Amino acid sequence: MSGSIWHITWEDIGSSSGGLGVACSELVEALPESHVLVSAAGLIEGRESSYSSYYSDSAIAAVDYERALGKLVSGQLLPYAGIDQDVWRFNLALLGLKRGSLEALHVHDWHGILAAVALKRILKIPLVLHFHSTQRERLGGHVNDFISGLEQWGASQSDSLISVSNHAAAKLVRSFSIEPEKVRVVHNSSKFSNRLGNQLCEVRKRRVLFVGRLCEQKAPLFMVEVMRQLYSISNDYSFLFAGSGEELEKLQCVVDFYGFGAAVDWVEHQSHCDVGQYYRDASFVCMTSYQEPFGLVALEAAQMGVPVLVTEQCGVAELLPSAPRFSLERAKSWSDYLHRAHVDAGYYFKICKSLQKEAASYTWQDAAEKVLAIYAKLLD
Question: Which residues form the Glycosyl transferase family domain (predicted)?
């Protein structure tokens, strides 16, 4: 490749709002030096670091994206048709960057789609749209019309789409009526073992961990019910919620109501490295998401030798076939399994080792090679 490729993302690796920044940073690091990570954190000051502006029950009126694109290219400073001001500023800043010899664009999720489509047309270069999660996967029935519409429009304007799992790719094809051959799957990986050292498999104190945004998608209220039932089996268990979100106060009230608040700790993790310490202290990690296109937390935990329990809707299970999977219909199935796994040391060691081996079998370099193959086809 003779030019550079921009990877456009809202989050940077220091963000605590989700795994998007981590995944983008690790992928770009594994790619050749011609790949440049361009994030909102580096372009606009004082912006919101999460999706909080769009977590609401009220839908924004449908937007004429072609008209919005024209306003953006003309340099209009005020957002168009209710588009969030920070998102608009981000897209304006992208158009104002010195481009050099730009060969392709790779936009991660929805925030930079407008500017990416504009640059694709101006420079006549290919555009790859990488869906780490869609609006429908993040919010379920509370879909925001602006973002969902922008995702579908962006998908139609892109030359190729990337999904983080086969599970998510199938949903993408159905939701946006996309030809299946336009979508490629590139799973995420993790470098936790490289940074923090392999966690030796050992029987730890009975501490069950939940990491993620405390929002409806992640089903933290279901996790509270699992904890309640597990604590009723044995009060030797303790629990940690690591994350923040609109469900926090409700969760704390429910825990206090059931009377096991003393066994639950709540932390708002501030950096990616903080999570490594939470994994070290945990005996099990649970991912209770209603929809989880990938689930980087489960892969990170497994790589450190911590067993994980996930829902049937988690794409990460494609890389971790040994991970037990349960539905969200019966909390008792979760609590019974967790207790059996904790008291059976032989099984505990077995699942730790199996998951750690599976997590180590796929690297960011593997992901990078798949991405390069997608570019090669587009630029041929």
Answer: 204-320
Phi, psi of 317 (to 5 degrees): -60, -20
pLDDT at 164: 98
Question: What DSSP character marks residue 20?
Answer: H
Fold entry, domain 4-189+363-379:
Rossmann fold (3.40.50)
| Coil, strand or helix at 128 | strand
Lookup: tokens for 114: 């407008």
> Per the structure block, which two tokens stand in for 214?
């405390």
* 193: region left, alpha or beta (phi > 0 left; psi from -120 to 50 alpha): alpha
What sign has the CA pseudo-torsion 28, 32, 35, 40?
Answer: positive
Give the dihedral sign, CA 259/225/22/73: negative
- Its sign, for the CA torsion 323, 27, 183, 217, is positive
Domain ranges of the chain: 4-189+363-379, 192-360
Same fold, 4-189+363-379 and 192-360: yes
The pLDDT value recorded for residue 138 is 82
**Amino acid residing at 298:** A
What is the pTM (predicted TM-score) of this model?
Answer: 0.91
State pLDDT tens for residues 261-284: 999 999 987 666 678 889 989 999
Q: Helix (H, G, I), strand (E, B), or coil: what is residue 142?
A: coil
| Burial group, residue 194, by CB count within 10 angstroms (0-12, 13-18, 19+) | exposed
CB-based contact 378:182 (threshold 8 Å) = no
Which tens digit of pLDDT belongs to each residue from 151-169?
A: 999 999 999 999 999 999 9
Q: Name residues of the chain where pLDDT drops below 50.
A: 50-60, 195-197
Find out whether 188 and 295 touch, Cβ atoms under 8 Å: no
pLDDT at site 56: 41
Q: What angle do CA 304, 306, 307 make, to 5 degrees?
A: 135
Domain 192-360 sits in CATH 3.40.50.720: no
Residue with token string 């405390």: 214
Residue 123, classified by CB atoms within 10 Å of its CB into exposed (0-12), middle (13-18) or buried (19+), is middle
